[in-house]
Automatic annotation (TrEMBL):
Main location: nucleus
One example GO MF annotation: DNA binding
InterPro entries listed in its UniProt record: Homeodomain-like_sf, Myb_dom, Myb_TF_plants, SANT/Myb
Keywords assigned: DNA-binding, Nucleus, Repeat, Transcription, Transcription regulation
Chain ranges passing through the membrane: none
Entry-linked SUPFAM superfamilies: Homeodomain-like (SSF46689)
Keyword Hydrolase listed: no
A single cellular component GO annotation: nucleus
Annotated protein name in UniProt: Myb transcription factor
Amino acid sequence: MRTPSSSSTTSKTPCCSKVGIKRGPWTPKEDEILANYIKREGQGKWRTLPKRAGLDRCGKSCRLRWMNYLRPCVKRGHIAPDEEDLILRLHRLLGNRWALIAGRIPGRTDNEIKNYWNTHLSKKLINQGIDPRTHKPLNPNISNSSNLNISSATEKEMGFGSRPGAIGQNNHAKLVDCDNQVVNSSDLNRSNREIKMMVQQGGQEKEYCNKICDDEDIFSSFIDSLIDDNGFFNQDFTMLEESSEADQPRCWYPMDAFGEEQYNLTSDQLPRFCKYTYY
DNA sequence: AATGTACACAACCGCTCTGGG
DNA sequence: CCCCAGAGCGGTTGTGTACAT
């Protein structure tokens, strides 16, 4: 790890400019002091925490050590195949938003996922002929991604899609914001969270939902739905139908899930994404 | 056995965002 | 509106270790 003599090669001063602040690997004793202090006093006020706890570390270092290593909920060890698949899907949706990705994988930290991505998954994708940044084939001539061992969910397109199967050939969909600008995956948790879905059906573009993602929980559910194999994006849009109850908030759901009968469903019975997609 | 190389991951850095005064 | 401190994020680096020569 870094030693005091190996500090940044730039001329900028490090965050811990104080002489005498210890850097580099944490000792078991330091871990114990930090963990005991946080258990006793709680976390926060990182800048002053080292002094209060009696550590010769900077606040940032303490925070990092706690968040990435000492927290009781941190799960360490081998990344399971299902976790790996989830990381792949989330990265395809969110890009290098490690904290956001980590937030959806219980017990894993952003640092751990970032490291795992850089040391394992990016190389794995490259070996499979996939650009790890775009999740698209490195060689444009290779279009059949089913040979590339990507789950169906990771193939979902956020813009207009035309992938036969999950997205019908004649019905394409895109997510747009309130200005009708296409929302890319990297924009999903940015400032504009009013998203609606535009679906092309029979030559016409229909608006299927809007005003979603007004708060973190709803946005969180929206992300869930995007990465869920059984979620909306895996439905064939040819099966979409609208509720027509005039005096109730209308929402859409895939017909294949409920048949063509009159809907009489509680919110709990609706697909997760649909719960929030009124218009 | 000695040396070199590649890899994994903990830790650091600079930057941005947010909220309070 | 501005300033500042605190917190958090993503990119990068350094070191220990496993493996190859």
